[in-house]
Specification:
Radius of gyration: 25 Å
CATH architecture: Orthogonal Bundle
Strand order of the largest sheet: 1-3-2
Shape: elongated
Number of strands: 3
Distance between the termini: 60 Å
Number of helices: 6
CATH class: Mainly Alpha
Helix content: 40-55%
Order of helices and strands: HEHHEEHHH
CATH topology: Multidrug-efflux Transporter Regulator, Chain: A, Domain 2
C-alpha cells in the first residue's frame, strides 16, 4: 500500500488502533482482545476523546506475540512471559522453559500418533470388505470388533 507507513516511520508517536492493525496485519478486533486480556496494558493509552493510542513499542510486542503463537505458545503462556518482561527482567529463561515444554508435548503427541498409526495399520492388514455378518449379528462392523 502506498499510504501505509512502515513501523520505522511510526516510531516516536502515538498510534491509533487502525494504524497498529495495518502495520501488524492483525485485525482491530484481535488488538482489542489482546488489550482486554492484558497483553497490551503497558502500551495503551486513551485520548481525551476515548481513542486507543498505542506507543510505537506495541509493534514489537505484537510481533513477539505473533511469533510466540506461531511456535505453539498459548496466550496465557505469552502473558506470563510478558509479565516477566514488564517487571523489568529479560524473559529468555521463561521463554526457553515454555519452548522446552512445547517440544516435550510434541514428542508425546508424536508417540501417540505412531501408536495410533500402528493400530490402524494392524486393523487394515486384516480387513475384510465383506465379513460374514451372520457370525456377528450384533456387531456394527466386525472389522472393528474388539
Amino acid at each position: 500500500m502506498v499510504g501505509t507507513p512502515s513501523p520505522q516511520q511510526l516510531t516516536g508517536h502515538r498510534l491509533k488502533i487502525g494504524e497498529v492493525a495495518t502495520a501488524t496485519k492483525l485485525s482491530v478486533k484481535t488488538i482489542r482482545y489482546y488489550e482486554e486480556i492484558g497483553l497490551l496494558v503497558p502500551t495503551v493509552l486513551r485520548s481525551d476523546t476515548g481513542y486507543r493510542l498505542f506507543d510505537a513499542t506495541v509493534l514489537n510486542r505484537l510481533a513477539f506475540i505473533k511469533r510466540s503463537q506461531a511456535l505453539g505458545l498459548s496466550l496465557t503462556e505469552i502473558k506470563t512471559i510478558l509479565t516477566v518482561h514488564d517487571d523489568g527482567t529479560l524473559p529468555c529463561g521463561e521463554v526457553k522453559q515454555h519452548l522446552q515444554d512445547k517440544v516435550a508435548e510434541i514428542n508425546h503427541q508424536i508417540e501417540a500418533l505412531l501408536t495410533l498409526r500402528s493400530e490402524l495399520q494392524g486393523i487394515l492388514s486384516g480387513w475384510q470388505d465383506h465379513p460374514d455378518a451372520a457370525m456377528r449379528p450384533h456387531t456394527i462392523c466386525p472389522n472393528l470388533h474388539v
